[in-house]
Amino acid sequence: MSVRIAPEPVVVDELITETAGRLFGELCTHEAVQAAEDSGGAPDIWEAFCETGFDLIAVPEEAGGSGGTLAEAIEVLRLVGYHSAPIPAAENGILGGWLLAQAGLERPDGLVTVVPPRAADGGWSGGETCSVSLNGDGTAVLSGEAHRVPWARSAETVVCVCEFDGTSTVVSVPASECTITPLPNMAGEPRDTVSFDGATGRAAPAPHGVDADALAQRGALSRVALMAGAIEKMCQLTVSYTNERVQFGRPVARFQAVQQHLVWAAQDAALVRMAAEVAAREATRGDAPFEIAAAKLVANQAAARATKACHQAHGAMGMTQEYPLHHFSRRLWSWRKEYGSDAHWSAVLGQMATGVGADGLYPLITSGTAALA
Amino acid sequence: MLTADGIRAALDGLLERRTDQTRLTSMGAGSDDLDDGRAYLAATVEGGWHVPTWPSAHGGRDASVAENQLIGSVLREYVVPDLYPFAIGLGMVGPALLAHGTAEQQERWLRPIASGAEIWCQMFSEPEAGSDLANVALSAERDGDVWRLGGQKTWTSRAMWSKWAICLARTDPEQPKHKGLTMFVIAMDAHGVDVRPLRQMNNDAHFSEVFVDDAVVSDAWRVGDVGEGWRVAMTILSHERAGAGSRGGGDGAKRGSRVPTWIADLAALGALDDPVGSHTVRRDEAMSIYAADMASRWTAQRAADEARSGGSPGPAGSGAKLRTVSSYKRRAFLANRAAGAAGMLEDGHGYIETVTAPSMSIRGGTDEIQRNILGERVLGLPGEPRLDRDVPWRESRKGLL
Q1: Out of 1.20.140.10, 1.10.390.10, 1.10.10.60, 3.40.50.300, which CATH number does the structure's domain B233-378 have?
Q2: What is the pLDDT averaged over residues A331-355?
Q3: Which superfamily, per CATH, for A111-207?
Q4: How far is B339 from B270, CA to CA, in rounded Å?
Q5: Are B363 and A316 within 8 A, CB to CB?
Q6: Do B130 and A315 count as a contact with CB atoms less than 8 A apart?
Q7: Which of A306, B89, B136, B204 has the fewest beta carbons under 10 Å from its own?
Q8: Of 2.40.110.10, 2.60.40.3140, 2.30.30.100, 3.40.50.1010, which CATH number belongs to B120-232?
Q9: How far is B328 from chain A (nearest CA, A)?
Q10: Closest residue of A to B395, CA-based?
Q11: Measured between CB atoms, does A181 come within 8 Å of chain B?
C-alpha cells in the first residue's frame, strides 16, 4: 500500500502581515502616493521599508538578505499593492536580490533593479536590444538599450540575465555606468529606459534553473501579488463609497444594477487573491510554471473586469485625482502588461495543455505543475 | 439644388481635406486646444455649414433634413477638429434655445455659438444630484425683475472656458422635485460665480466645481416658464445623448477609404498582421467593434434626423450613447493591448484613451441611467418605485427610505 504524504504546509507569519500593513497604512496616504507620482519616487517610504528588513525578505541571510520564504515576500508584495506603496519592493528583493544571490555576486549597497527579460514571442521584452561580452576576469561589458526598467532612475545597481555562449549569465552593472532616461507608466511609476553603451559590471554564470524564463515566472508572480492587493483595496473602496453615496433617496449600493458591479469586483478580488496564494505556495515548494501562468492570466483578466466595475459604480467621483480609486486602477492597467500579457500566458498554458494530451488535461487542472513531470 | 460637389466647391476654400495622416483627439481627451475648433467654426459660420438646420439668421442655413445629411457626409471628407470645447453650445444649448428660447434669446446667443465666439457649459449636476438630477438644490429666488441664485454645481465640464452656462435651479421647494425647477442662463463672469477646476485621472482638468453665491440673473435670461425647468432639461439631455451617440466616434475614414483610422493604426503597429495565433483574437475584436460601430452610427443618424426634423431625439439617443461609449472603451482597450508592454507607458499607443475610457459610460448619464430610460420608455417596463413623486422636494430631498 502506498501512502501519499501531504506536502508540508506553507505558512506566512501573521506578524509580517501586521507589520507591513501597519507600516504602509501609516505612510502610504493618498497625498503621499500622489506626491511620489509627481516627483518620481518616495525615498522616505523606501527608507522606512528598508528599516524593517522587508526590502530583502526571501533573500538568504548568507547572501546579505533578511531570510524568510518566497511566500512571505509575496505577502509583503500583496500589501504593497493594497496600499499602492510607491516602492520597488519586487525588483530589489525577490527579483534582483534573488538573481545576485543565485549567481553568487556581491550585493552592492543601495537599491537594485532588474531588466525585465525577453519573452519567447517578443511580446514584452524589456531588454531586446542588449548584448553582453565577457572578459576572463569576471567583468562584463553591456551594450544596447533596455526598456521599461522599474525605478532605474533611483537604483544604484541594474541587474540583468543574458545569454552568453549558450549559458545564462547574471550581470550586475552600477547605474552610474548607464544613461537613464526617465519615463512614467500609466500610474506614474518610473519605467525608465536604460542605455548601456559600454557599461562595465560584474558577471557570473547562473546555476541550473536560473534563467530568463525563471525570472519571467518570478516577475509574473510578483505582479500577481501586487494586483491581488490592488483589486482587493479597489473593491473595498467601491463597497464603502456606494454605501455612503445617496441618490434617489437611498444609498446607490441598494440598486441591483450597482450591486452587480460590486459582485463582479468582489469575485475578482477573491479569485486573484486565491490564485496568488496558490502560486506563491507552490513556488515556495519548488517550480510552479503552471500555477504562475494561470495566476497571471487570471489576474490580468480580472484587472480589466474589476477596474471597469469599480469605476462604473463610483461614477464621476472615481475619475478625479482627489479621490484615490485611480491609484489602483492605473496600476492594475500597467501591471497587467508587465511580465506577460494575457496573450503570452494563454499561449504558455495552451502549450502545457496540449503537451500533456487529452488524458493529462484533468490531472493538470487538479494537480498543477506536479502533473507536468 | 444643393449637391455634394456644390458643397465641396464651397468647403474647399475654407477647410483642409482629410488624409490618411489626419489624427484628432476625441472628446477633448488630453487636449486643451480651443484654437482649432474656433478657427473651423469661424470659417464655416458664414455658409451655415456646421449647424445647417439652424435659421440662416443665427449661423445656420435653414437646411432640410436631407440637405443636412448630405452636408454631414461631405464634411467627413474634411479635417473637422475635435469640437469638445464647443459641444454644449452646438449640440445642446442651441437646440434648446430654438425649442424653448425667446426671439431675443435666440438673437443674442445662437450665432456666437455657431461661430465659436462663445463657449457654453451646462450647470446641472450637484454633489447630491448626479444620476438623481431632479434633486438639484441650487436655489433661485425672485427679486423684482431679477433672480438671485445660490448653491453649488459640480462636474461642470468646460466651465473654465465658458462665457455662459445654462443652469438648472430650484425655484419652488414646496413642489415635488421635478416640478419646482426653472432653467436660467447665467454669465460665468458674473459677480458671485466661482469656478474651481477638478483634475481628472487622465490629467485633464476639463470639469469644475462651480460655487454660486447670490449671483443676479435677469428674468429675461430665464429659458422656458417658471416651473418648466425639468422639461427644458429633458430637451437638453436628449440632445446630449444623441450627440454623444453621433459624434463620440473617433472614426476618420477619408473619402474613398473604408478603413477607419483606428484600424489603420492597429495595422500600422503590426497588430493585425498574423492571420493565426494571438493576432486572430485582435482581428476578431477589431471586426466586431467595427460592425457594432456601423450599426451604432446608423441608429444615431436616425435619432439625429428625428431631432433635426423638429422632434426630440427621444429614447433612441440613450441606446446610441450606450453603444458608442461601449465602442470607445473597446477600441481604447484593444489599442492598448495591441501595443503590448509599451502600451503601459505614458507615451504608449492608446494611453490617453485607456485612462479616459471609464469616464465615457459615466458622463452625460451613466449606462445604468440610460438602460433605465430604455427599459421604461422604449420597452414599457414597470418604472422604478418613485416615492418622491408627489411629495414636496423640501421633504423628499434627504431621502424617504
Answers
A1: 1.20.140.10
A2: 93
A3: Butyryl-CoA Dehydrogenase, subunit A, domain 2 (2.40.110.10)
A4: 9
A5: yes
A6: yes
A7: B204
A8: 2.40.110.10
A9: 13
A10: A249
A11: no
Decide the pairing of beta strands A167-174 and A157-164: antiparallel
How much is the mean pLDDT over chain A? 93
Specify the pLDDT at position B278: 60
B154: nearest CA partner in chain A: A316
Catalytic residues of B: 240
**Residue B371 burial (10 A CB sphere; 0-12, 13-18, 19+):** middle
Give the closest of B281, B348, B366 to A315, CB-based. B366
What's the distance, CA A2 to chain centroid? Answer: 40
Q: What is the mean pLDDT of each run of 10 residues along chain B (401 residues)?
A: 93 90 82 94 96 95 88 90 94 94 97 98 95 95 97 96 98 95 98 96 93 97 97 88 50 59 86 70 88 82 69 68 89 88 85 92 91 88 84 81 58
- For the stretch A129-140, pLDDT in tens is 677 888 878 899
* Nearest of B191, B155, B184 to residue B170 by alpha carbon: B184
- Position B313 scores a pLDDT of 60
Contacts of B393 in chain A (CB under 8 A): none
Kindly report, residue by residue over B9-43, the tens digit of the pLDDT: 999 999 999 887 777 888 888 889 999 999 999 99
Distance CA B398, CA B366 (A): 22
Q: What is the pTM of this model?
A: 0.90
Q: Do B342 and A147 touch (CB under 8 A)?
A: yes
Kindly determine whether residue B200 and residue A346, on different chains, have CB atoms separated by under 8 Å.
Answer: no
How far away is chain B from the Cα of A311, in angstroms, using its nearest Cα? 6
What is the distance between the alpha carbons of residues A260 and A244, in angstroms, rounded to a whole number?
17
Q: Which of A239, A206, A250 is nearest to A98 (CA)?
A: A206
